[in-house]
Amino acid sequence: MKPATDTSEGHHVVVIGAGFAGLAAVKNLRAKGVRITVIDQRNHHLFQPLLYQVATTILPTSDVAWPIRSLFKHRPDVTTLLARVVGVDKDARTVHLANAEPLTYDTLIIGTGARHSYFGNDEWEAAAPGLKSLEDATTIRKRILSAFERAEVADDPAERAALLTFVIVGAGPTGVELAGIIGELAHRILPKEFRRIDTRQASIHLVEAGPKVLPFFPDPLSEYAVSALQRLGVTVTTGQAVTGIASHGVRIGDTEIPARTVLWAAGVTASPAAAWLGVPSDRAGRVEVQPDLSVPGHPEIFVIGDAASVVQADGQPVPGLAPAAKQQGQFVARLLNARFSRRRPPTVFRYRHLGNLATVGKGAAVADFGRIRLKGVVAWWLWGVAHIYFLIGTRSRIAVALNWLWSYTTGRNSARLITQRDAYFDEPG
Amino acid sequence: MKPATDTSEGHHVVVIGAGFAGLAAVKNLRAKGVRITVIDQRNHHLFQPLLYQVATTILPTSDVAWPIRSLFKHRPDVTTLLARVVGVDKDARTVHLANAEPLTYDTLIIGTGARHSYFGNDEWEAAAPGLKSLEDATTIRKRILSAFERAEVADDPAERAALLTFVIVGAGPTGVELAGIIGELAHRILPKEFRRIDTRQASIHLVEAGPKVLPFFPDPLSEYAVSALQRLGVTVTTGQAVTGIASHGVRIGDTEIPARTVLWAAGVTASPAAAWLGVPSDRAGRVEVQPDLSVPGHPEIFVIGDAASVVQADGQPVPGLAPAAKQQGQFVARLLNARFSRRRPPTVFRYRHLGNLATVGKGAAVADFGRIRLKGVVAWWLWGVAHIYFLIGTRSRIAVALNWLWSYTTGRNSARLITQRDAYFDEPG
Q: Fewer CB near the terminus (10 Å): N or C of chain A?
């Protein structure tokens, strides 16, 4: 596509992280003579917007993840390495890896995303797993399903009640989606299958420290989400911070809720990219980049996606959403394509907001496109179609569509498996 | 269906193990007033004949496993418990559980299957996992995929060669199927995706101590399987016993093969049912049962499936196959249904052999129905249709059919994910 030039011949672009940002950069970066190496510590790209459906038994893992190297099968210019980055030497232009020889780069693109943050309470993690990886999703699935299983064999009524209490901390889209599906499991899917307990007696708490659920949505849509959650038996608490989490329960303000299952959907912190580079980061650990997404003083290093803090010309920060990450990857690819072909590269990344979508349960979702706001069944269909559209590949689209169709028409979920080794019996409690 | 009688009213049947045997017993056991409790240490029934396809990236876990309690959703007489049995008190007619109160029974059915046996070399297990559970399958999948990934980043040619060497011990159907699909991965699916290694240079060894592969098949079919394996680049060795297995390789006779991936498909031993019951077992740990599958001296206890050693009237042992386990479950259900309705119960289990099937790779399988023997594409289609027929439920049948169609037409496998927590980096080597 691009004319060959002296500048690009033999140029080596290293991309760390094959999330939405990194993948979009590689897909759109094509220049003759340029070699690209993609490094990720997983062998798969993950479609995070549907990860909560793996955690809640609707989708199997293979519907939301794809081997990275298979995505670049037909790109001989792209080499994929399953490796863990331990540091970057900006002067020697070298990436150091835990399990392989160092790699030198001419251009470095970092899109390593974010992970959970427990706001300084890292001891909460063991009791309240977050949702970022496939393993997180199968861990959460195991915890939810095991809680019902343990309740079925428990003799002590207090223990049984604690096992049937689920607390989700954080009422952003992930927290709302998790609470909604646990509500559906307890009230619609599981009641017929248990003989000793009534799963409809489960208590499901969605706890948010801020003033409302779905903070980035307009008030009427947040209020709709609350009423949809309440119809699924979810108790919504806002304006109350969690002050303690342990394996026996959660403390909210001064109230103790005995609960064996606590899920964390409250906060994230960026990957260690800032530490690797030795550059300033914002409060959430994100690298503060230039308007063209490069690192100050290093036009050959870009940080994109959730690992970057990008403030636009109007002072608005770019949100941590999949479309924003994709757009940043596309922007850097365009910039580099221009640089390699000695055209003038774009200098300012501009984020184009496509809207916000979130689901609550079967037939209930909210959609905010600025002037157009939707809720209920129409928003839910829109949500479904949009997510299938953004999946990678025909197979995943067909598989997800069929799994949804199956799940929503029969009320049977396909992925209700407890699958981690000794998952159930080795756990305390 | 069955008339109510005094004998069945309030009768409690406890079934341990929801494999093919236990499931068939519960499905066919229906008598008014009889309560049934199914105990399993997993929350899912597993379709073991296709488990090797999970291990080799073709099928996702959720296509070959179903939550046990969902199978009995419409059977209010059946209670499912996720629990681990630690012992049986035959006098008190009580089953002791690790995680719940003891259960008393009137009739006990044990179908707890078999697990790997390393013939006294239990230290081999860490280096050479076997294939019995979903976790075993994802462990093996992780090992196979990680070996190729590590080879791609390895610098030392000897290390790279060891990473690209796969040894499968045991050439029964599972060993042959594993070797065949690893051959397909290395030669047909992965070559285009790696840049530093040529996956076609992988060495795949299938090692059998006995005189031939697929020992239960007639010679011409065994010979066909060998030639089909060789076409996929598999080296077949028979009449040679493995004398050592460690993380750096395998010793076969006096020869050392450096190999980082060793898979065990050589032997099984029965579950601890004989120890629970304090009754005699055969060399493979199986309980020696009466012709009606009951335990000698205990007409109220039955052992069925791979946990039982059943010798037929003609002196022939019943083989450890899924259809045999199902038939035994059906037999015990029929016996109990008769007993409950005061009809004369059947006294001798008779195994009806349906044939043997095994696949080698795409388009290659063998089928032995006594007088009719098939090999090649026809056997392969038959194998596929038979396995889809025996899956549980419409969704699984559609999902497996679509995954196969996809995999065989596009050469892309759906489930090529390395998914265990810290799977890749924490492993030695």
A: N
